[in-house]
Write a structure and sequence with these properties.
By secondary structure, this protein is mostly helical. The chain contains three helices and two strands, in the order H-E-E-H-H.
Amino acid sequence: MSKGKKLFRLVGGALVIAALAWFAHANSGRYVDLRFGLFTLRAVSLPVVVYGSVILGMLLVVGASWRNDLRARQALKKYDQIASNVMSDLEPTSRELEEANRKT
């Protein structure tokens, strides 16, 4: 990766962190009630709710896609095995080439 790309990513990451820190500081005095139907959490800090919901959403997406990812990996391994079997049938091995050269 070039230095320009690294610098761009570093500056971009620093800006995102700065924006998140500003949001947390600006809303540190705000509290909300979370109603879950059966129970209610009272006076939860707004930045905690926002960051917690983002992390929880990310974990749910990873959990939901995990099974399909494993299926895709297994299918790719199977296709690689099939391709290697086909290629070994089509191309003579180096041992077969040596034997053919010795016979001539």
